[in-house]
User: Fold this.
Amino acid sequence: MPSIYTKYRSHYRDNLKLAIPVVISQLGHILVQTSDTIIVGHFAGTVSLAAVSLATSIFIVPLIIGIGISYGSTPLIAQHNGRKEFAECGQLLSNSLFINILSGIVLFALVALGSIYFLDHLHQSPQVIKQAKPFLMLLGLSVIPMLIFNTFKQFAEGLGFTKQAMMISIWGNILNICLGITFVKGLFGIHPMGIMGVGYSTLIDRCVMALVMGIYVFRSKHFKVYLKGFALKNIDRLRGLKILKIGAPVALQYVFEISAFSAAAVIIGTIGLVQLAAHQIAINMASMTYMMSSGLSAAAAIKSGNYFGVKDHKSLKLSANASYHIVLIFMSITALIFTFGNHILPWIYTSDENVILIASQLLILAAIFQLFDGAQVIGLGILRGMGDVNIPTAITFLAYWIVGLPIGYFWGIHLNWGITGVWYGLVLGLMVSAILLYVRFRIISKHHRDKQIIIIAQD
Assistant:
């Protein structure tokens, strides 16, 4: 064990130094939903909590599509920065900003259509639908400023500057919580808004975060050399396609996974309102650890992109292995927390004992899939940094939509195992994804290493 630590020590240090601010910043996305869930659960009741579950389960799909597309610029920026091509990084920022704003508008339109036409056909409680519709509209509108924030965040992180986005995310979440409680409860003379209060607080929070992050990038001395390439005239088809060539498959990767969990929520909603509320609690807690692992994955993609850009495949493999070690240790700790705190943690969200009983059972299953979830998201990040996105996209589709969700539906509905049967299927999907992505990384790593040996031998 000491020899392993010695071998990877420098990579542990470098990866964690880069990853920790990214993890905290990444956690900000899910903490918005978490704070919304907690506020509604305590101040608005079980029906409103179920409405939040339904709306966020649908909204998470366009949210993740937008985040995935915004990730397309980061590996490219990391690779060009590794080659000292600074102006190209600024040109990529121009194209990324244009693509993300356009994506935000399109995604909002899709959410609006879903809110008007789609929700009524999901066989959910009419009380839940009534509250979920306007809340979903506000969430959809908030995706536009969120993607503007992410544009500048991914640019800065691709260059190795991660702390500012972290600080903005922390203060943004504090603002969201304060505004959420104020609007929902009706403090300081404001009329109580119920579930709509957290919708408005989320929208305001994301607008402020986008503004502050943009000001930081344009005014910071760290980016002056890069921003020489930033201009509207540098928006062109070629760079846009380069970003989308990575961003679109990454978005699909997230969509295949997250939409499977969203579909699971819809299936669970047909079982019962209490089960849906319990699912929201358990999946929200699992989503927090997932987003933290996703932050580690983003850092792994940046490091992989740096090493891949300069063709240092030995360091790339060591850095990737170190990322796997870190995420497996982290997810083991969270699995223990879920296991031993399964009867306590749900009280953070609600005091409904029926909901708490089911949520406590689901947290045991969440503990089981922690390791698989962490391993698969790290695998996606490493491969993304190397520019390998198409095969991993196919793997995620296979794991969740061919294996996980159909088996979960069969176990949960046809065999009458209920909500636990649906979750068993999700665990299986995560396991398949983790194993296949790791195998893919080993194959790609060996290919590039052998190719480099051949080139050296020819020279």
In short: The chain has one domain: 2-458. The mean pLDDT is 80. Residues 2-458 form one domain. The two ends are 38 Å apart (CA to CA).
